[in-house]
Structures are given as structure tokens and as C-alpha cells.
Target: 3-dehydroquinate synthase homolog
Amino acid sequence: MKEFWYWIEEFDKKLITTALESGATTLIVEDPAKVQEVKKLGLVKVVSPEGGDLKLGQDVVYVLIKGKEDEERAAKYPQNVKVIVETTDWTIIPLENLIAQREELYAVVKNEEEAKTAIKILEKGVKGIVLKTKDINTIKRVGKALEEEEEKLPLVVVKITRILPLGLGDRVCVDTTSILSRGEGMLVGNSSAGMFLVHAETEENPYVASRPFRVNAGAVHMYIRVPSGKTKYLCELSAGDTVMVYDYKGNGRIVYVGRAKVERRPMLLVEGRYEGRKVSAILQNAETIRLTRPDGSPVSVVELKEGDEVLGYVEEAGRHFGIKVEETITEK
Model:
């Protein structure tokens, strides 16, 4: 997850609250006398020369890069120091060089285009961006850009090969603090090597109202994709955790878990194939649980048939505490 910092060059309550509402988690306050006033506006981390959570000039340093000497100075700070760099002409080369050397690197940006570039440089990108602007709309656009640029996955079309009703099992209903749209869902599967895009409960029917904040994700043992390319078991989720939501084009965004509800329900094994590779999941056997067709429309598991095509994601198997590893592994 890329961090969003906002640099307060002069105290303006409207600008600060807009930054917080747009997703900023850290504020840089140049005037120590304003630290407590800023903290009253929200639970947020503050960087300041005095009185903040992090000390500017010690825990966090700022380097204006005018030439190679400045770049080398930024690279020499201890790795536990957060380094903010600003380039006079916003050239990418210094950032490329520093990204290869530092983990705690932040780039000063002035608009959403610079923010999008900074978080994608060398694919890895900077750890976060520091926005300097006094324009409210720019703050909002940068916040939206960071949310939209979290991750892009190449989803694949999986052909259903098997549908098998099972007995009772424990399933996890993931309620988020966000409203999900038609065509969005979560990637889950019996194996991290193959996952289905389980659609959010955005659809109404005669018996149940829509719950667009919810994904009825499936059995407790299954993997779910979370930020930074990692996975968790569904049974591990709890309020405050972050999970990934993807649309049918593979665009991912981070959402927060408001509640993870485990209940005993009749279950259904769904299997499919993509280029000879198996994708499988155990989902609740109910009309409101839906997979996602290639055009983004939802299809209920009770209407699913062999030969139907739905969206999924495949990768090489192998996870250790949710982190992808290269090893020989067979999952059935």
C-alpha cells in the first residue's frame, strides 16, 4: 500500500481536512506551534521539527536534489530513516537510482500525474508520496489516483468443469467499510495458484436486499488476496484488516474489513480450468453467492453449469505465511 503524506506549508483547516478525507495518513507540519491544532482534526501521524510523532530532521529527512551530490547524500542516510526527496525539475532518473537503494523513500509531488509516475517507477515505486499543493481539487485527485493505482492483475477466463454440492461447512462473509460496484469482487480459492473472482452482493432479488459492502467469500480454509501481493486464510480476517477488491478488468483497490462473519451453511465445490490449470473454491450454496462473467456481470452459483465461463486468476503455487515463494508444491 503506497502511503499518502500531505505537506502543510501554512495552516489551512479546509486543506488539511480535505487531505485527511482523501486518504492522507501522515501530515508534515513545519510550524511546531500548530502540531496540537492539527492533531485535533483527526487521528493522524504528524511529522514536525518538535512535538510530532516523528521528528523532521531526525526520523524523517528532506533532501532537495539539484545534482548528483544531493542524490548521493540522500542514499547515505541509515535505512531506518525516512527520506523525502524533491527534484527541482521532477526528473525520474534520481528517483530510479534511489529506489534501487532505499526502502523508506518518499517523493514530493505537485499533482496526480507526478503521483502516478512516482508509485510506478521501476515497477516497485517509492514507498509513498508527499503532496505539496494548496489546491483542494488536486488533493482530491491525488487521493483518488492512489486508490485506483493500487494493483492491476491479468484476470483470466476460467471454464467451469465441476459443480458438487457438499454438506455443511463454515463460511466467511466479509463486510467492508466501502461500497462495491457491479463487476467488483474478491479473489478467493482453495489454492493460491488459482482463484475465482467472487462478486460482491450488489444485486437485489425478491427475497434479499442488496448488500454492496459485502462479499460472501467462502469456506474458512480458503485463501483471499490482500495488499502487497500477499494472501490470508479467510478465517484470519477481522475488523480493521485490509483486503483487495478487483473489478472485472483486473483493477484492484484496498478496502477495510468492518466485520468478518463466520456461519455454518451448506457448501458447494466449484472447479474450473484455464489452459490445463485447475481453479477451485468452496462457496456457500445459495442464490446470493455469485461469480463474475468476463463482461463483469454476476452469475449465481446455483445457476452455474459446466462449460460456463467466469473470471479468475492463476499464478505459480507456493505460499509461506501468505508470502509467495518458489518451491515444489502440489495442492489438490
